[in-house]
Amino acid sequence: MNLFNLVLLELWHRKSRLISGLMAIIFGIAVIVGIRSVATFSEKAVAVKLDNLGANILVLPQGASTDDYYTADIDAPTFPENYVERIVTSDLSGVDNLSPKLSRRVKIGEESFVLTGILPANEITAKPLWQTSGLMGAELKASCAPSNTANQSLGYKDERLQRKTIDSLAAVDCYVGFIAAKKLSVVEGGKISIENKEFNVAKVLPETGTIDDGRIFAHLHTVQKLLGIENQISAIEIMGCCNAISEGLLSKMRNILPDTRITTIGQIVSTQLETNKMMNQISLIFLIIILLVGGISIGNYMWANVNERKKEIGIYRMVGFSQSKIYSMLLIKSVILGFFGGILGYIIGTFAGIILGPQLAGIIVQPIAVLFPFSILLSIIISVIGSLIPAYQASRIEPYSIMQES
Amino acid sequence: MYLQVKNITKQYHHHNGTVINALSDVSVTIEKGRFVTITGSSGSGKSTLLFILGGLLRPSSGSIFFNEQPLHSAGDNALSAFRQKHIGYVMQSFSLIPYLTAEENVMVPLSLLQKDKKTQMEIARELLTTVGLSDRMQHYPKELSAGQQQRVAIARALANNPSVILADEPTGNLDPSLASEILTLLKELNTKNGITIIMVTHSPEAAKYGNVKIHLKDGCVTKTN
Questions:
Q1: Domain B31-45+75-224 is in which class?
Q2: Does A316 touch chain B (CB under 8 A)?
Q3: Would you list the DSSP string of B148-215?
Q4: What is the ipTM of this complex?
């Protein structure tokens, strides 16, 4: 028999009170695990949704105006097309797709339009709004985590799964935005003349409600020749994973392309950051509440336990247990309480997240293994902190006073 | 000289500000192997003296020595070690741990020693057999009679092979026949095993078992023989 056995025997003897003492810490840990589980999967869901918004990073030459993200490439200075290669050959993660562009204002009749040279596959992948328009092609490969398969397994509606790209855009073909087509009165299969070169209208794009409705898209290399600025581009659109952007993707890109100006859609990144921040804050608030409530609850239980066991502690002292031995016994007890509180709290919290996640937040929640040791550790810390004062009080019990009382 | 207190006083400070003198300038020397009885009326300071002798209570002033080693200036660890190695206690209310069996109660002092569980159990069973409880080892205190509980307490007091047993009214909760059995057992431990017994008692019958008698009145020793 040793201290540990004595503590276990005492705990077993007072099972009902043990359960009531454990309740607060179990539910406290359960709440934290439940919130963290839902928060983790919510962050992933938000990240997927934000990534689905499409291109969110714009690489521009130094000196280009960035007053409006969506028109920044128009009439901007140019830089070499091979900058695309620099990014492609780098080991940057979180870069989903690259779309080099050259945009210039051109006159067709009396009207002014924006002619944008694109490399078709890339341009399409960076424009999710077009994806539902029935363009033909292969499914895109997305590098943003989680993968499409993972997203599907989690039940996220990931539009990237439906994205298609066009195989090619002939040198004489063009796509005409919805408003531009109206102004030019052209239909699919018609012809338009730009800068004295005739283009076939391969498709009139459906209305998107964006600046792209007024653009005419043609093959990048055709536009470069037409405008006399070969091997030059005015912008590279990039679909960067929001998580990667929030983790410093832009600064890494600036190191690769130091003589460019790299900007992003602030709202998207800030939404991601705000989401993460909010989830972390909620978790932190609950963590503090649980620390206080759980600690006080365990402290209260231990205090009552010490008062109830005064005579018993007096007996231990009488037969030779030192103050430090009594203190150790109470702390061993608090560690045991914390250990089981953490295990049960993790199980209940995980099940709560799995059951309530889909109902309340519309997301599928799975067990997060890393929260298991965290739950046990946190629970033990709360339990030990809450027990420090009662354990100290117990160690100060003088056996003679208890013996006299009895 | 074995256990000695010199000019001991003990004062209790009541929360209303009054001071109670439980012991006033008490000096006692107890030789090894004696059966000492401490008698006196209620509030005379008997138990206080017993607790001071056993290292459970510190005197307000004065000195206490065990084998010429000072206990009055010892720290908690040293006093705990002293109690664990040299003293066995038998209390009026038996002072058993309610959720431990008779065997486990006897093993409690042994848990402080570096002995494995098997050895602890062997010692506990041997001691319980000695006090006549070989058939009650796995019984909890509430399943035992008062006399049996006091026997378990005596077995526990003997667990660490102490040189002194301090008994505070050990027969106070027992009927006369059971009281006689317990006193006889203590006397045997004194005569056969050479264990020094210091017993506080109200009972003149119990006091007869002692060969050294200390009488206290109002915190002072009035008679020793």
A1: alpha beta
A2: yes
A3: HHHHHHHHHHHTT--SEEEEESTTTTS-HHHHHHHHHHHHHHHHHH--EEEEE-S-HHHHTT-SEEEE
A4: 0.90
